[in-house]
Amino acid sequence: MVETMQKVLEGVLERLSKYVTIYLPSLLAALILFLAAVVTAALARWLLYRIFKGPTIDRFLRRSGVAFMLDPTGRLRATRLVAEGVYWCLLLAGFLLGLSVFDTDITTQAIQKLVFLMPKIVVAGLILLAGVALGQYLGRGMLVWAVNEDFPFPRRLATLVRIVIMFVAVVVAADQLEFARDVFLAAFIILVGGGVLTVSLAVGLGAGGGFRRYFEEKKQKSEETNERSLWNHL
Amino acid sequence: MSERLPDDARRAAESIGQAGLVIGIPSYNNERTIGHVVRAANAGLAKYFPQLAGVVINSDGGSTDNTRDAVLSARVEDGHLMLLSTPMGVAHRLSFPYHGIPGKGSAFRLIFQMAAALGAKACAVIDSDLRSITPEWIELLLRPILLAGFDFVAPYYHRHKYDGTITNSIVYPLTRSLYGLRVRQPIGGEFGVSARLVTRYLERDDWDTDVGRYGIDIWMTTIAIAEGFRVCQSFLGAKLHDAKDPGSDLSAMLHQVVGSVFMLMREYESVWTPLSGSREAALFGFRFDVGLDPVEVNVERMVAAFHRGCQELGEVWAVALQPTTYAQVRQLGESTADDLRAFHMQDELWARIILDFACAYKKHPVYSGHLMQSLTPLYLARVASFVLETRTLSSTDVESKIEQLCLKFEELKPYLLNQWVGDPVGKLDGWPAAEGAEREREMKLEV
């Protein structure tokens, strides 16, 4: 009994030492590579923060609307954008390099998949970014319009516009990545179709009178106050 | 000339040959008043310029009533005019639909093209909804050009204290502080223009922007001042007119007029940045007091629109306004939510709002449309405050108030310049430092 246990333990220890002998150097090498990547990325970010004092790029970001899109205060700095971008790219590169040290089927496949997916990820990212930009733009347009027109729930309307645009962007991005393509497409069709049907039914059956009352009240209010003369005289 | 005349206008110009003076009348569904305007224009030409051949041109935006018929059938009997000289001939009357984007500017473009094609020495444009126009207006708009060598004659009217609020609260103070010339009605609607300036207008390629719409008036005035043309004013009496297009929307109108001012600020940056203070523009005509139509104003509704803007438009105003200005706007919104009588927007705050928007328009061209539209509730707040403040004041006192606002705009020009060239705005004239307010804004920001 003791002998058997001893054998089992020896076997385990042997396998463990074998694994350690095989994988520890790789793991250490991977860790060293990853740490080197972290240090390099941090260094690059630090350097970029200092070097990249680019008022021209800041101006470009502001004028192109990118700053406004990513940062609602519109005060996004190019330095931060570039430095953070480089930082995360270097970290990813370090991670992939670390994985490649193991040289196993799984890691090789994972790296290959990631490398092959990269262009698609970039395109999908750009699609999402465009969706955010368009959503912000149209949402803001809706917000300002609704406020000026004294329309009810302007911020909810703006949010709805943003959500719809973002959802479309997500569907397109998922299609690009070939990720749950059918699920997203079906969800999109159901949502849009359902939305249109709901609005049609609401306007046609229930809310029609409400809408009519709203517009009549608005018209009456405008006539009563007779404010037009103020608007018409520049 | 960037665009050729439409065929019907070209044929008419060829058949007339040459004309000394052109009177242009843009119109859109003005059947009720345009006959009177055409008659006044014809009488003015016959009475004051009998030695020059004149053409009255109506540039119509596709009226669905009988505006064009009213133009072509308008008659004036020479015998009633007590003419001292016999006119060279009856002034031609033409009416064409204009092409291009629908708006007053596109109508003016056709008029200027016709004036150039006819070799006119001077051209006057007048609104088609005027009820107070007399033949003397034609003389007052054209004589400074023909006899005194001016290139641009702006109108000078008596208006009701609540009439012309975009002029009084934004366009006049801002234009005056920028370009240093006091043209009291820079977007009045009636102007006299020399042949030289007509040529300059037609050379430009920005007719398809807001200039083609309500931006045309300030565009004409600004170009004349900024490019060194000789500018004067003529006193025309009272401006009484019909309400314009009922469908016209304040936000769009404000956007087009103020957007044009801001657009021109970019173009003429090198002209206005070195200037400070302002001087009077020459004024022709005999000044007299007149009775004016009352203007109805619903202050409560305007203040309500402002409060609604405060609640909903934080994310846009935060971008357009400097932190200190934004904090003051929010404070105004919060402090006056329940008490209408306490509502008061200081001249300084209003001037800073406009100057901040001008800079934001330059800095965020992609979102400039949204920024401009978001100005509407702030503008309504200013008008409401002005109405409350001047309710019991006479026209003279109100004019003094407007003068104070103009001086505030002039005083704040360094503030504008600091922002315009991109320097951060710090502590200025007793306002809190920007940094603290920035933090406050970030805390309050609703996204």
What is the compact description of this entry?
The complex is a heterodimer of chains A (234) and B (447). By secondary structure, chain A is mainly alpha-helical. Chain A has helices spanning 2-51, 55-64, 66-70, 78-102, 105-148, 154-177, 181-206, 208-225, 228-232.
Report helical residue fraction of chain B. Answer: 40-55%
Shape of chain A: elongated
For the termini of chain B, the CA-CA separation is: 47 Å
User: Based on helices, strands and strand pairing, what is the structural class of chain A?
Assistant: mainly alpha
Radius of gyration of chain B: 23 Å
Walk across the major sheet of chain B and give the strand order: 3-2-1-4-7-5-8-10
**Beginning-to-end CA distance, first to last residue of chain A:** 104 Å
The outline of chain B comes out as globular
Question: CATH fold name of the largest domain in chain B, please?
Answer: Spore Coat Polysaccharide Biosynthesis Protein SpsA, Chain A
Query: How would you classify the quaternary structure?
Result: heterodimer
- Based on secondary structure, the structural category of chain B is alpha/beta
Mean pLDDT of chain A: 79
How many DSSP helices of chain A?
9
Number of strands of chain B: 10
CATH architecture of the largest domain in chain B: Alpha-Beta Complex
Structural notes for this entry:
Chain A is an all-alpha fold and 234 residues long. Helix content of chain A is 88%, strand content 0%. Among the domains of chain A are: 1-103, no CATH class; 190-221, no CATH class. Chain A contains nine helices and no strands. In chain A, helix 1 (2-51) packs antiparallel against helix 4, helix 5 (105-148) runs antiparallel to helix 6 (154-177) and helix 7 crosses helix 8 (208-225). Chain A is elongated. Chain B has 447 residues and is α/β, with parallel strands linked by helices. Chain B has two domains: 15-284, Spore Coat Polysaccharide Biosynthesis Protein SpsA, Chain A, CATH 3.90.550; 299-444, no CATH class. In chain B, 51% of the residues lie in helices and 11% in strands. Chain B has helices spanning 7-16, 31-48, 67-73, 104-117, 135-148, 165-179, 195-203, 216-226, 250-267, 269-272, 299-312, 314-320, 323-335, 347-363, 368-373, 375-390, 395-411, 413-420, 434-444, and strands at 21-27, 54-60, 92-97, 122-125, 152-158, 181-182, 191-194, 231-238, 279-280, 282-284. In chain B, the strands form two sheets. Chain B has an eight-stranded mixed sheet with strand order 3-2-1-4-7-5-8-10, with helices on both faces. A two-stranded parallel ribbon of chain B has the order 6-9. Chain A binds chain B through residues 55, 59, 62-65, 68, 72-74, 137, 140-141, 143-148, 150, 154-155, 225-234, and chain B through 159, 162-167, 171, 187, 189, 214, 217, 241, 243-246, 248-251, 253, 257, 295-298, 301, 305, 308-309, 312-313, 315-316, 318-319, 363-367, 369-370, 373-374, 376-377, 383, 422, 441-442, 445, 447.
